[in-house]
Amino acid sequence: MTERSFGQIMRSNCDIDPQANAMEFAGHWHDWAFVAETIDGVAEILKQQGVPEGAQVALICRNQPHSVAAFCAVICAGCCVVPINPFSSPEKMVTDLAELQASIVIATETDWQSPALQDYASSRAVLCISLDESCSAGHLSLAHPCVFDDSTSPPQQSPGVAVLIQSSGTTGKPKRIPIYAAKLSAAYSNIPAGRGESGQAKLKRKPALITQPLVHIGGLFWIVHSLLEARPISLLDKFNVEQWANAVERHQIRVCSLVPTMINMVLDSDLPTGKLESLLCIRSGTAPLAAETQQTFEERFDVPILPTYGATEFAGAVCGWTLPLKKAFGASKVGSVGRAYEGVDLRVIDRETGAELAAGETGILHVRSRQMLEGDDWIATTDLACIDADDFVWLSGRADTAINRGGFKIIPADVAVILERHEAVKEASVVGLDDPRLGQVPVAAVELVDGQKALNEAVLKAWAKENMTSYFVPVRIAVVEALPRTPSMKVSQAEVRRLFEV
């Protein structure tokens, strides 16, 4: 079969049966004709406005059909999607857009009602495309035209880059990671069955249930892989146990993905076990899953959980469990994140000497994978791990101070910098506390500028919610006379943590 591009595969899938279901959201289905109209419509707008191939297109990536279709459309047009986190405040979105120097922005009509986004668009040369969520046909419009030429060309990416996704911070400070269109379309050639003699995908009827956000690597790959194999998708904008379970039962879902926080939410509910009878397994990643939680879930619902491990930097998961592995080792390897996938090499390095460690010894996990851009290079993670004699990987914490809040990675210093932008805050220190539902949550201690006495926790938390991404906001903030310090005058994180443990 001749190798085809992402755009060729996606657009041809739309023509198999245009009136068949493609995307479900809030109980309403959009057909493949809707996806085709979006692909063709976005391409026409970009062409009319003089947008060159490779141009960066910022998209507020909601788990809704219009945003998902626009995501695919940008890649089909040969441009690069730059996902903007929909969980951020409008002010934080504008900050991200400004840092990216975004001159092409796609958002829903609801998003464009934000004064902050309107001000961004009107204060510079920006091409703004609006998505009308209230209709399926004729939903694309120009909210703010901007014709480009050689002198006003928008920021561009290297040839072949389809997505410039932000990492979650697993291997350090969050950064934009390029994902190539060839990596996305490669998923099509890896589909073992479901194509006709011509090589074209056969339209599937059973949908994939999407629980993870499009803005993260997990949601991105579940969505893209499903649509490339001509499989419809059922979208959840935010995880809700009842809505998820109803969708599993309604569509008789066999495999789905839940992060540990979602698994805990299901366990905390009074969900009848019969709702999940169709499930063969649940894949879980983005954060460590407690062995006790896994065992409790499996015993209650009789559904095996297959943990995985990966990161945006690795272009997805690099190791995990399969059903055959579960059958052979499930009882003896509870707590492991599985074995390396095909095409992936793993090793553990001594953090002091840099020497490779033997089986069973704990050190820094290094990854080498064909699916990464630097396929021949070893990438050092910030995770402490060991690989046992049976090649199973065991994680034992982080080598840095990153906070994992239900799968969302937070660098404490980033939160502290934002808090210190408040005129009354002299210095801030942020640490993570263990949380039974989310794994970890951020808390902060702040020292005020001399003479500032009126600032309290409630006022500062309200300010934080307006100025940072929602999951960055500390769950508690202690206003102290002076931050505790070590003899070398560094802030003592251990003492800061103790402020919240009494």
Describe what you observe in this structure.
With 502 residues, the protein is α/β, with parallel strands linked by helices. Among the domains are: 6-181, Rossmann fold (3-Layer(aba) Sandwich); 403-498, GMP Synthetase, Chain A, domain 3 (2-Layer Sandwich). It contains 15 helices and 25 strands. The chain has a five-stranded mixed beta sheet, sandwiched between helices. It has a five-stranded mixed beta sheet with strand order 12-13-14-15-16. A four-stranded mixed beta sheet has the order 2-1-11-10, sandwiched between helices. Helix 1 (6-14) packs across helix 3. The longest helix is centred in the first third of the chain and has 17 residues, at 32-48. The chain is globular and about 60 Å long. Mean pLDDT is 89; it is low at 169-173 and 187-195.
Overall shape: it is: globular
Oligomer: single chain
First CA to last CA: what distance?
65 Å
Task: Briefly note the structural class of the backbone.
Answer: alpha/beta
Strand content: 25-35%
Unreliable segments (pLDDT under 50, ≥5 consecutive)? 169-173, 187-195
Tell me the strand order in the biggest sheet: 4-3-5-6-7
Q: Please count the beta strands (DSSP E, at least 2 residues each).
A: 25
CATH class of the domain at 6-181: Alpha Beta
CATH topology of the domain at 6-181: Rossmann fold
How does the major sheet shape up?
5 strands, mixed
Helix count from the secondary structure assignment: 15
Give me the Rg, rounded: 24 Å
Mean pLDDT score:
89
Return the CATH architecture of the domain at 6-181: 3-Layer(aba) Sandwich
Percent helix range: 25-40%
